[in-house]
Specification:
The protein is mostly beta strands. Helices cover 9% and strands 36% of the residues.
Length: 550
Amino acid sequence: MAAEVILKLTICFLALMVGVQGGDPYLFFTWNVTYGTISPLGVPQQGILINGQFPGPEINATSNNNIVVNVFNNLDEPFLLTWSGVQHRKNSWQDGVLGTNCPIAPGTNFTYKFQVKDQIGSYIYHPSTALHRAAGGFGSLRVHSRLLIPVPYPDPADEYTVLIGDWYVKSHKILRGFLDSGRPLGRPDGVLINGKGGKVGVNQEPLFTMEPDKTYKYRVCNVGLKASLNFRIQGHKLKLVEMEGSHTVQNLYESLDVHIGQCFSILVAADQDPKDYYMVASTRFLKEVQTTTAIIRYKNGKGEASTELPPAPIGWAWSLNQFRTFRWNLTASAARPNPQGSYRYGAINITRTIRLVNSVSRVNGKLRYGFNGVSHTDPNTPLKLAEYFNLADKVFKYNVIKDEPEKTTTLTIQPNVLNMTFRNFVEIIFENHERSLQSYHIDGYSFFAVAVEPGTWSPEKRENYNLLDAVSRHTVQVFPKSWAAILLTFDNAGMWNIRSEIWERTYLGEQLYASVLSPEKSLRDEYNIPENTPLCGIVAGLPKPSPYTI
């Protein structure tokens, strides 16, 4: 009885700290982060494991669940995990990036506490510090719909997570040394599916099993560092049903381009001859194509997979045309009972337009990337902490870049923070003047990707925006010499990272932060700093400011 009382008191305490609804279920996890030897491409190397696993453990949640993850850092370096796509409503304290959190020091722990409020879909978590993502530490986070919310397809026979990504055999410290010395990472050494590389014709144990005449759901996410990947399954069509938290119009595809940081949910019907089939992931837009495979086996099937793999598409025009086929399912309900299409984003007036032009340059002889002439650097004091303690002027300046980029080929290194007006409806244009594809992500939000087009953006291009059924998502790709337009309401108070998902570019400055402050300073808009938040930099040892109230 005493233990039961303690458990209830603990849950109530956590609910108060996180600001979540006490009636929603809790999921508790304890994760030990360690080094370990892995050989995903046949070469032994140092990897980052979570509870001894590579990739890390999967979190299986339901919409509105409260997730509590106690992370013990047993590495020799500071460490953070970020939860890509989780919106952390009113709670950027849990975002796990260096602009919001002090890193977890070696030999210590930190407990993340967040709610997947009004979200469904397929997401990933991964390290945000240094180049730890190149060594592992990543995994999947599933958020299922609540039982009372209808899903626009029959329940599948089973669900499978497929984490695809490029991979380097050099350690994360060596790769980080390359970047610190001014060198790029170069091409990846291979591609992995769920932490393993597979070759055609080489004996592989089946990764997944399907029974004939049943349908299966595959959650496919690109957890890599550099390369977009094409995903396909030998002899099978892919029915796209969900993308980054949104139900989509259910089109059939031979293959899907999955850019870095993106997650798709697809249905696959086991309607072929019962035998083995190859699941294939191969790099796109790189000079040398890297390919990996995994086996899908039909139950009681006989026969090896054909060594003739389905071909990958060629060129980025194919990928652009595929993007244009993605549509929001207007009649489906997502995390809430109301249909997705009841939110008419196309009827909202734009109050601000921000053009972000990515660029590459050298500063003091070393490679750097940035937006609008500024290459971001993380100060010793996290931006959110400096702001919360009213010490922002001692750590960074707001709006060091302008909404309309100036013509410059140089980069200056400094913190890059844009001040956003709370609840304004904003248009962001990502312009890519380079010859390589970009992939961008915004923490804390989903946005409507209303256009991706070649050329240079101008106001007249708004005539071609999809203002009806663009997919609400948290990443968008920008093709070479092209632009992408997104629309969103900055209604989630906090400090939020806008970044390249190509991690060498992120590490070398192609990121910024959106500061979204509520003028009310009320718990209705943002939660107080959690009691367990470590303090570092100039706020270390300071008393916390007066808490917000209703």
